[in-house]
Design goal:
By secondary structure, this protein is an alpha+beta fold. Helix content is about 40%, strand content about 25%. A hairpin with a 3-residue loop joins strand 2 and strand 3. The relative contact order is 0.16. Pfam families: DUF3145 (PF11343).
């Protein structure tokens, strides 16, 4: 019944990352841009375009690449956390 979302902010020369886990969905991971958007690679887009069997299949695969099911599953918990204290982890160098 574990649910979580972990984000790593990008730093110079390194993409950020987002990890999400929800029961029944498992773990999902994607790279993120400086503003937090999910980054879909050129190879992922080429594979999607080559293998999609119609508009519905294309749209479904885009949702998978963007983690839509994980967003839907985790959204109620994000709202519940509005205003809650946040613990930021910092790298100590």
């Amino acid at each position: 019944m574990l649910r979580f979302e972990v984000t790593e902010d990008p730093s110079p020369g390194v993409d950020g990352q987002r990890f999400c886990h929800a029961p029944g969905l498992g773990l999902w991971r994607a790279c993120t841009s400086a503003n937090g958007d999910i980054v879909v690679s050129e190879d992922q887009l080429r594979t999607l375009a080559a293998n999609a069997k119609g508009p519905e299949a294309f749209a479904h695969r885009v949702d998978q690449l963007l983690g839509a099911a994980w967003d839907d599953a985790l959204e109620p918990f994000r709202r519940a956390g509005d205003g809650a204290p946040v613990t930021w982890l910092h790298r100590v160098g």
